[in-house]
């Protein structure tokens, strides 16, 4: 059953801040926000009750450092991204917490006012429609593999053997490192696992 895709809305400078992340961290954040859009939890998150009830923080770490995306998804029609930043100290700075709380207050006061609303997070994060479409396809393929591993309750070693990749590659897949996987690689993994990929082409809206 297909899940309803919530709209994603960026408050204040949140979109510009997220697009300023290094590309690997930006795309990992995009993959996690795509999960949130369809009603799933991110892979690594914590509640941010100091900002507001229902507010959560996506936690990302890669070679460039630690990055955070603060959002709220409790509303029926949209995911609201409040603040995106690179975390440079062990404790989240008061400035970042205050800014997220300020945008949460603005959201409550002005629920319908935003000029940065998108049907898909990839339309917001990528530089062209072609790149956005590529990332949507990668997300669907990667999610299918992750779901297959979860349903079959495969260990990383078992999944690596089935998909003919190394165990570290399975770990990267399960941690949402989407920028490390091309469309071709993901299709090959699905085929190796005994799954068939069907392509549907239609005119863009």
From TrEMBL:
SUPFAM superfamilies given in the database record: lambda repressor-like DNA-binding domains
InterPro entries, per the entry: Cro/C1-type_HTH, HigA2-like_HTH, HigB-like, Lambda_DNA-bd_dom_sf
Organism: Pseudomonas avellanae
Protein name, as recorded: XRE family transcriptional regulator
Residue ranges of domain HigA2-like helix-turn-helix in the record: 125-202
One function term, GO molecular function aspect: DNA binding
Pfam families: Gp49 (PF05973), HTH_37 (PF13744)
Superkingdom in the source lineage: Bacteria
């Amino acid at each position: 059953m297909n899940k309803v895709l919530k709209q994603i809305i960026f408050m204040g400078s949140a979109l510009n801040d997220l697009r300023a992340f290094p590309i690997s961290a930006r795309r990992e954040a995009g993959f996690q926000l795509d999960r949130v859009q369809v009603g799933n939890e991110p892979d690594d998150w914590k509640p941010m009750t100091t900002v507001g009830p229902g507010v959560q923080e996506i936690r990302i770490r890669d070679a460039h450092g630690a990055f955070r995306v603060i959002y709220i998804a409790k509303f029926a029609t949209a995911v609201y991204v409040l603040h995106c930043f690179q975390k440079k100290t062990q404790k989240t700075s008061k400035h970042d917490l205050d800014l997220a709380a300020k945008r949460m207050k603005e959201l409550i006061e002005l629920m319908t006012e935003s000029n940065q609303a998108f049907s898909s997070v990839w339309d917001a994060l990528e530089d062209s429609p072609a790149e956005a479409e590529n990332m949507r396809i990668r997300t669907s393929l990667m999610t299918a593999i992750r779901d297959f591993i979860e349903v079959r309750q495969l260990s990383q070693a078992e999944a690596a053997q089935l998909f003919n990749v190394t165990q570290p590659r399975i770990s990267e897949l399960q941690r949402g490192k989407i920028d490390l996987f091309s469309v071709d690689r993901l299709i090959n993994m699905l085929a190796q696992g005994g799954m068939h990929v069907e392509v549907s082409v239609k005119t863009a809206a």
